[in-house]
Design brief:
It is built from twelve helices and twelve strands. The protein is an alpha/beta fold. α4 packs parallel to α5 (154-173), α6 runs parallel beside α8 and α8 packs across α10 (312-325).
């Protein structure tokens, strides 16, 4: 089986590639990635020489290159993760999100459709999406697979649009697809623009921790390896044309999460208790900031037997330990362009 995994040099994609390469030696895994600021082949150093792994540097917005690639390699299956993924960047540059997340997804769908021309036996297009397409919850309730789409940020609008196109290709052309919508991930190799790695990096460097608004926003956090395990299950056992919600059953208000992170970091760094909390700085809120995300993951739990394998305390500990022992990784991704981004975003 030839599987194309897009965005495999990024955060979640690298964990998915590793899992598939190691667990399925009989599958040929092709990792396609444009290596944007968020893509890093260092994330896959440990498996890059495996005989069932190959890397292809291509941009999914390049229609011709994508079409040629499908003709050459004849991928049986696609697991599509490549995306522009950060909400703050989508607020300053929405068009690049449309290009990659919408047009890029369409290029992949078209190439897949043209390659197999209706003979889809044993083929599947698996689209990885986010719970942010559902918009925001109030203080109560959970997102289910039937919650209406109501995206509020350019990022979530672009992901919602790509989800709709995938479903439309299923209805219109009979393309076999499955979609999963996951809550906020955390773990090793996450680019330090997202809350947890950004704050770990700032605590290490003793720089302010910029909490948006009053910090009373809620997210449902899932350890990235548990997301990769869920993706493996959905890919192999999920039903065509279905959506599966994936979440951590693990809601935290940002401010409580940041305080917990400060506590654990102080303990690791040998700081007196309360040291890192002093870095918390309330800053201007993100425009269109969704109040609360929380996933009802009972469908994937009941139908595919999935549930998170680690607790949040365990996952956070693994994550902190990884960042502390991978100072070079952190340094290399925060040099150069990162400095400009940080200044623009937080000045
Ligand atoms: P990421 O930003 O860490 O990685 C994205 C990867 O895609 C990078 O390797 C980048 O180089 C690549 N890429 C970007 N544009 C590309 C292009 N035009 N052509 C080819 N490759 C390109 O993202 P992530 O956090 O790993 O998210 C992966 C997927 O999971 C995304 O589709 C995202 O919407 C979804 N998702 C993320 C989360 C989360 O919490 N991070 C939660 C739910 C769903
Ligand atoms: P983020 O990691 O960007 O994920 P998402 O916006 O996709 O949920 O942000 C998680 C939460 O943390 C969100 O409510 C915004 C907040 N946040 C801050 O308060 N400060 C920051 O510097 C960042 C990046 C996020």
């Amino acid at each position: 089986m030839k599987i194309l995994i897009t965005g495999g040099a990024g955060f979640i994609g690298s964990h998915v590639v590793r899992l598939f390469v190691k667990k399925y030696p009989d599958y040929q895994i092709y990792n396609l990635d444009a290596l944007t600021y968020a893509g890093n082949l260092e994330n896959l150093k440990d498996i890059e020489k495996e005989p069932n792994y190959a890397f292809i540097k291509v941009d999914i917005t390049d229609e011709h290159a994508i079409s040629e690639l499908f003709k050459t390699y004849k991928f049986d299956n696609v697991i599509h993760l490549a995306a522009e993924s950060h909400v703050d960047r989508s607020i300053t540059d929405p068009l690049s999100f449309v290009k990659t997340n919408v047009i890029g997804t369409l290029n992949l769908l078209n190439a897949f459709k043209e390659l197999w021309k209706g003979d889809f036996e044993g083929k599947r297009f698996y689209h990885i999406s986010t719970d942010e397409v559902y918009g925001t919850l109030g203080e109560t309730g959970l997102f289910t697979e039937t919650t209406s789409y109501d995206p509020n940020s350019p990022y979530s609008a672009s992901k919602a649009s790509s989800d709709h196109f995938v479903r439309a290709y299923g209805e219109t052309y009979g393309l076999p697809f499955v979609i999963s919508n996951c809550s906020n991930n955390y773990g090793q190799n996450q680019f330090p623009e997202k809350l947890i790695p950004l704050f770990i990096n700032n605590i290490i460097n003793k720089t302010p921790l910029p909490v948006y608004g009053d910090g009373n926003y809620t997210r449902d956090w899932l350890y990235v390896v548990d997301h990769a395990i869920a993706i493996d299950l959905v890919f192999h056992k999920g039903k065509n044309a279905e959506t599966y919600n994936i979440g951590g059953f693990n809601e935290w208000k940002n401010i409580d999460l940041v305080k917990e992170l400060c506590k654990q970091m102080d303990a690791k760094l040998g700081n007196p208790e309360g040291t890192s909390e002093q870095l918390i700085t309330f800053v201007k809120d993100r425009p269109g900031h969704d109040l609360r995300y929380a996933i009802d993951a009972s469908k994937i739990n009941k139908e595919l037997g999935w549930s998170p394998s680690v607790t949040f305390q365990e996952g956070l500990k693994i994550t902190i330990d990884w960042y502390l022992s991978n100072a070079n990784w952190l340094k290399s991704v925060t040099s150069g362009a990162y400095q400009n981004y940080y200044e623009k975003q937080y000045s």
